[in-house]
Amino acid sequence: MFVALQLVLSAVGVSLIIRRVEIEGKAEIHYSPMDLFRAFLDHWLNKTPTALEQRLLSLSTKGSIETKILSFSRDSFRPESSIVVSNFHPGPYRDMGSGGLSSGLKQSLEESHGGIVEVPHGISNHKLNIVSRQDIDRLLSSANASYPSDHSIREASPMIREREGEATVSGQAIGNIALLTITLAPEEMEDLPTEVGVAIEREASRLGFEPFTIDAHNSLVGQTSITPLQAERIITAAVRVLGRLKALPRGSFRVGSAFDALDKYGLRDGIGPGGLSVIVVKTEGDSSSYITIDGNNMQQGLRERILQSIKETGVGDGEVMTTDTHLVTGLVRSPLGYYPVGAVLPTDSFVKQITDSVRNAVTNLRDSSAGFSKFTVQLQVLGSETFQSITSFIGRVAREIGRLFAWLEIASLVLAVLVLFVL
Predict the structure, then answer these.
(1) Which of 39, 56, 188, 403 has the largest count of CB atoms under 10 Å?
(2) What is the pTM assigned to this prediction?
(3) Which residues pair with 63 in a beta bridge?
């Protein structure tokens, strides 16, 4: 009798819980939560994203994805290296949507145009997670079709830095391109607000520059976010850099590049398939390095170790950046759900690998010219409002289910007491 009553009580209780979740979920996210969850499990466990993509597409909106390409060439025809910055966000997780687009874009351009390609993190956030593989293919095709064909820029300035509070902005003028990198290191940092990019764009345009702005994404321990004060400080530092760049003399430049697949490490170590890419730009009496690692942010303090170490190569300054790839997420048990670059790597040998790559790039320095292009495509994206509604709904429902199951356990206990001592 006890077992039969427990089965009935459990079945009715679980059915009511699922029904309640379905009713509340459809009202809030306009889709069946259980269908969405089944599709998620199918992707997570079986690596088949089609069903989940179709469901997320029904929740997506149109987004404008802007991509800029700065390429360097030795002979005006054959690319030596390139830096690509886009406002897509590498999410939402693992290889879903644009989660691994950074390394995919690197591979696609290298195969089509040659040279070493870096795809550091642009100013973007979860508003612009590209949803479907079809749209990913559209972006890759547009990047290949829009790759710079004219490399007529032959003058560059040295790299300079400005600091405002914890915000550090470096800048280098390559023709009328203002190559800017932003970091809060050694303080923690995460995705930069889009308002930062808008403000920098406005000031750069006023001064006659085309901004090429990179979120270095290179200092993290735990969950964090950019405060309004930090955003203001970033803008202040960037405006000062742009003003100084306008007045700096420019001359011919040389470029060298190098690549290390970092194949001793994998996704569980926080390293994506894009590995390590290095571009060194040398002007008269000055040189700077742009180091991009395919990972999601960087262990706090590692950037400073790397920049200090690369001075051994004769390179005076530089920046260490990550791609924010989400291929590394959800694979390990950690507070973040992944390891930032360097968190579980042997620091000394890892820094040495990076320093050796910079040294290799220096040995490849040759007279160079630069080309620039940009394009915009309209793609389906998982907007922040939808993303937040889904995640907040899941969190709230999880807590509610916990409470309902607690009541179900209490009811079962009461039933057991009744069966054993009363009936």
Answers:
(1) 56
(2) 0.87
(3) 379
